[in-house]
Design brief:
The complex is a heterodimer of chains A (339) and B (304). With 339 residues, chain A is an alpha/beta fold. Chain A has eleven helices and 14 strands. Classes of the chains: A alpha/beta (339), B mainly alpha (304).
């Protein structure tokens, strides 16, 4: 896992100095966080400790992602529980917290009759920056998001992708420690989505601003995040580094056309531990555990010896999709049993 | 639309040619962070500018500036006239207020919807509430912006009139000292007009995201209330009619003006019949403003 670049001041050449943040305090901490709207529980006792990272907030629509973000920003009062974001209490220090945290809302919402520079500069002032510094920051940040030339044009003439970039610029114009991005790729075409993901990646890797990236698209989170928080129906499914949960070290999944038992025996004779696939869909899979690179030769030799066709050979690592489906499924099953 | 390119991350200086623009990197902000009060004031000033059409197209500036001119130019012309023709008659303060009342009300109908409706219609509120202000700071910034703008239109012309009257006197210094209480009275009336019209305009604007609807309600509401009060006054008799003054915005202000600058010219009208003490008018106006503010605050209260 590529852990967070800790915040440092700018270097004389304008580049950000990056230092590892191991041991840095968590950016988000919650304890028993609960939010209910009447009888509907949107967040159900979340206990979170999230390190400074590029964090993916994953969940289906209605899982509680936006409610969690709004609660962490101090905009929505939790029914129960406490929390701290970049060191500020979400219940009592909302206005101070929001000076150091940025937010890009999901909803389309930019004033059409103003220029990008004017609106982004105004948002910087609203975050406490003096007027002159706000104008300067607006110009810098609009350059960073690729709108340097367009900054004096009225927003109403902007495409969806450009509007998303303006929203992103408003979220980082005050140089926050952490930025919440609520579905930033929603409504974008493939090229726009690609560019938005690049920008989000830059915010964390180059600018050193920790990111919480809310999405229901697994691929986006897998690509740019180091850490994942998965929610389902307001409950925490998992919160851990992405690199850790996906890896099943030293495992291959083999599919052959031929005698599975004999193939398995030949590999066992070579000293490998072999088991049959457990799921209904994987009964013809052989899962081979290995510790050296000779395993590929052993599989080839066994196939030649039994005259078996090798149909597929892939790493046993779980994808984020496997994890999501597996963990969310397990959690729902457990709830069904309890109820 | 063609997407503008994202600046490249790494253009090595060594590869750069003369005049080539290369990535200037990202610099963190290490300056002052002025906090909530600064944010509140920034929103107030920005809202005033937007309502006046500043940094917007020229068409957005026409109505507010025309209304300003309509309220201020007569005062300046009158002072100029008196300076040139010393015996010329100029409007009294009550006459001037009566003349600008409708202008002030239309100004409120122009400014207040611009303050609130646009943010609701264009869904920009999440951007504001994610900053270092609360929902109530937002409401009070909009109130301050509206009342300050309104006050420039309701107070400034009569202050110019007062100043002009004293400056054309034989002894301006002496005249100023003698008529200082008049200044206090016109400022009080102007501030109350700004407060009531501004809050009423904002209260109406808080119920709809559509500017045109808000403008229509503010203008038609004024006309309806005044017409109903006058019709009821004319169609009936009895002492109860004096309470109709609390229904008609213009008569309410004329009642206050009559109390501060007694003229007895309105004895046959609703204002003359009502004849309440000044304190009653002031308290009623303040109560209206407080109710309006509480209503707007409720409209912007968190819904969870």
């Amino acid at each position: 896992m590529t852990m967070a670049p800790a915040r440092t001041s700018a270097q004389p050449n304008g580049q950000v100095a990056r230092t590892p943040a191991d041991g840095a305090p968590p950016i988000i901490e919650t304890r028993g966080l609960r939010k209910a709207y009447g009888g509907v529980v949107a967040l159900d006792g979340l206990d979170l400790i999230v390190p400074r990272a590029s964090v993916g907030l994953l969940g289906a629509n209605g899982a509680g992602k936006t409610t969690l973000i709004r609660t962490l920003l101090g905009l929505s009062k939790p029914t129960k529980g406490t929390g701290r974001v970049v060191g500020y209490d979400i219940l009592t220090q909302g206005t101070q917290l929001r000076q150091h945290v940025g937010y890009m809302p999901e909803a389309e919402g930019l004033p059409s009759g103003t220029t990008a520079a004017d609106f982004v500069g105004h948002m910087a002032e609203m975050s406490g920056l003096p007027a002159r510094a706000a104008r300067q920051r607006a110009a810098d940040v609009l350059y960073q998001v690729g709108l340097a030339e367009e900054r004096y044009r009225l927003i109403k003439g902007f495409s969806t992708g450009m509007r998303q970039r303006v929203k992103l610029a408003t979220a980082i114009v005050h140089d926050p420690d952490l930025v919440f991005l609520d579905e930033p790729t929603a409504g974008l075409d493939p090229q726009g989505r690609e560019e938005m993901l690049e920008l989000v990646e830059r915010i964390y890797r180059t600018m050193g601003i920790a990111v919480v990236f809310s999405s229901h698209i697994l691929e986006d989170i897998e690509r740019i995040c180091d850490y994942v928080v998965i929610l389902d129906n307001g409950r925490l499914v998992t919160s851990q580094p992405l690199a850790g949960i996906g890896d099943v070290q030293g495992t291959l999944v083999v599919q052959i056309e031929g005698d599975l038992a004999a193939f398995s025996s030949l590999l066992v004779e070579r000293g490998y531990q072999v088991e049959r696939g457990k799921d209904d869909m994987a009964l013809n899979d052989l899962i081979v555990h290995f510790t050296d690179d000779e395993v590929y030769d052993a599989i080839r030799d066994a196939a030649v010896r039994l005259n078996a066709s090798l149909r597929s050979l892939r790493s046993g690592s779980r994808t984020l999709e496997d994890i999501y489906l597996g963990d969310v499924g397990a959690m729902r099953e457990a709830q069904d049993v309890v109820s | 639309m063609q997407q503008p390119p994202v600046p490249s991350l790494s253009l090595a200086a060594a590869d750069a040619r003369y005049g080539e623009v290369f990535d200037r990197g990202y610099a963190h902000y290490d300056g002052k962070r002025l906090g909530r009060r600064h944010a509140w004031w920034a929103l107030t000033v920005y809202s005033m500018k937007r309502a006046m059409g500043i940094r917007k197209s020229w068409t957005a500036k026409i109505i507010p500036f025309l209304l300003y001119l309509a309220a201020i130019i007569p005062a300046i012309v009158m002072i100029g006239l008196v300076a040139l023709v010393p015996r010329a008659e100029i409007a009294s303060y009550p006459q001037y207020f009566e003349a600008i009342f409708l202008i002030a009300w239309i100004f409120a109908a122009t400014v207040a919807p611009e303050m609130l409706c646009v943010d609701r219609r264009e869904h920009t509120l999440p951007f504001y509430f994610a900053r270092s202000i609360t929902r109530f700071d937002y409401v009070f910034a909009k109130l301050a912006a509206t009342i300050l703008l309104m006050a420039t239109l309701t107070v400034l012309p009569v202050v110019i009139l007062w100043l002009g009257r004293q400056l054309v006197a034989d002894s301006p210094g002496q005249a100023m000292r003698t008529h200082l209480d008049d200044l206090g009275k016109v400022v009080l009336i102007g501030v109350m007009l700004a407060l009531v019209a501004g809050v009423a305009g904002l209260a109406v604007s808080s119920i709809t995201p559509r500017k045109a609807v808000a403008v229509a309600i503010i203008v038609i509401g004024y006309l309806m209330l005044t017409s109903i009060a006058h019709a009821a006054f004319a169609a009936s008799d009895g002492n109860w009619r004096r309470y109709l003054i609390f229904m008609s915005p213009i008569d309410l202000f004329l009642g206050l003006i009559e109390g501060l600058f007694p003229s007895r010219e309105l004895d046959q009208h609703l204002v003359g019949l009502a004849n309440f003490p000044i304190e009653v008018y002031l308290l009623y106006m303040i109560a209206l403003a407080v109710i309006g503010v509480l209503f707007i605050r409720w409209r912007y209260a968190p819904n969870d």
